[in-house]
């Protein structure tokens, strides 16, 4: 890719790239010592957060990619990224761990966003 293609790519996927960087930070940061965060948590609240974060990520990628019939690619990117972040937590930190249920929540969030996006933007509105 030449410089102009790189710039076009970054411009087109800017929101997704920023969100991916936020996910990277949240995935690798040590949030265990945050007292304010602990007060907001309830059982399985992290799974809800995973679901929402990856639903937003998928929706952003889908909206920026926006090609009918090819939504599998953004969906795959989101799912792969969620799995990759879990492996990064396991291998790059001593205070985070790989959790299968986090991967599952990430994947479900991605699929729900894909389903909603598909229904909103690719449903044939001429049918009754």
What does this structure look like?
The protein has 128 residues and is an all-alpha fold. The chain has a domain at 48-123. It contains 6 helices and no strands. Helix 2 (14-28) packs parallel to helix 5 (72-92). The longest helix has 22 residues, at 100-121. The radius of gyration is 17 Å and the shape is globular. The termini are far apart. The relative contact order is 0.15.
The count of strands amounts to 0
Low-confidence stretches: none
Order of helices and strands: HHHHHH
Give the N-terminus to C-terminus distance in angstroms.
Answer: 46 Å
Report mean pLDDT, rounded to a whole number: 86
Shape: globular
**Backbone CA Rg:** 17 Å
Task: Compute the number of helices.
Answer: 6
Helical percent range?
over 70%
Q: For the report, how would you describe the main beta sheet?
A: none
- Secondary structural class: mainly alpha
Question: In brief, what are we looking at here?
Answer:
Helices cover 74% and strands 0% of the residues. The protein contains 6 helices and no strands.
Short descriptors:
single chain, 128 residues, mainly alpha, 6 helices, globular
Give the SSE map.
Elements: H1 3-12, H2 14-28, H3 35-40, H4 45-65, H5 72-92, H6 100-121
